[in-house]
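Entry: Trigger factor
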Amino acid sequence: MQVTETLNTGLKREIQVVVPAKDMEARLLERLQDAKGKVRINGFRPGKVPVNHLRKVYGKSVMAEVVNEILSNSTGSIIKERGEKAAMQPEVKMTEDESEAEKILAGQADFEFSIAYEVIPPIEIQDVSGISVTREVYDVPESEIDEQAMRVAESARTYTPKDGKAETGDRVTMDYVGKVDGEPFEGGADSGANIVIGSNQFIPGFEDQLVGAKAGDEKVVEVTFPEQYQAAHLAGKAATFDVKVSEIASPEAIELNDEVAKSLGLDSLERLREIIKGQLESQFGTVTRQKVKRQLLDALDETYKFEAPSKLVEAEFTNIWNQVTRDLESAGKTFTDEDTTEEEARAEYQRLAERRVRLGLVLAEIGDKAGVQVSDEEMQRALMETVRRYPGQEQQVYDFYRKNPAALAEFRAPLFEEKVVDHLMTLINVTDKKVSKEELLADDEADEAKAEAASEKEAAPKKKAAPKKKAKAAESEAVAEDGAE
């Protein structure tokens, strides 16, 4: 086998490989000789089939197997022998000329093919002990836990039907049909719907017009959908809702006690408060970690400057761009609505893709040198967390991942990345800083103000959901799988 480098520019490599016809012939004869004692052909005793006859019958198919074996085994070994690591699956090219291919399969011509790939650049691990980050910490006060407990208890609040007019805080049970330009619209009707006046669950202005309604009343509610409403075809449009009220009910008082906790399936009020405290601390802790991680990634981004493999960048950009355009389409917006142009947006996301790939390779190298491993138990735990997000379909989702190793392997990259971040956090300087909730969430709220609208939902007159953040605002920017394979 003759191996010749034909291209070595930047990270791009191309190798020309020639397997002489005599070597191909030798491999073919070896396989045929091995098959001689195994095949059964009418007219010949077992093990007595002449090799020439075997070649006449099976020669081309066996040579095709030889070709595939060479392509499968030599590509990786050649790159490894060169001391290189391909950024992505190498591109292998061979002749497409049928007559040449026939000669190769007949053992009458050399087998030639080329291997094109990009290498992962060598990364020299830098000392990180000089990196300093500030970890913002918010201590959840007891008052916030009680406030959240009261909101949770609202789900257990009971209502008593009453005669008379609806007031703020009352629950109204009704049927409604929404119309735009006099025509009902999809998702704008419901029967037996419950709404608590003042809860702000419906679009602005809807609940206010129910004040004073009585059981049996029929009325027309006039509203205008918000300009940023998630259903783009309704955003900013005037609408009417034909409402028929069937019941008015007044709320019973709520007192936080063990009975309320038990109505929620818990043993005691203390247990309810423990659960709420844990959830709040987890939520704010996630924000804290992401902000610290962002500082760390920014520092690494300043430290490591090298050319990233263009194919990896291209793949990452495609993923980001597809998400951005889907979000824009879902929100019924254009780049102009976001005070930018498509060209400017492409340039911005191209820079983000390059950063993600470069940081992914850096984290992969750091993790590899530090011996970071993702255990089977951690993979299983990640799988189960994903399965739980599909209630009613748990078994199907579980079976899908268990039967698709490639899909299951996708869990490894984010787990690996977080473990590398944990490792780095033990090496850098971390200063804790107590902050208010507003300070902790300040950046997130700024991102939220610039975020895309959430995916379009059914156009029931509900309050607009919180929009999804742009790809550029995503906290976890590094893509460890780029170099962790």
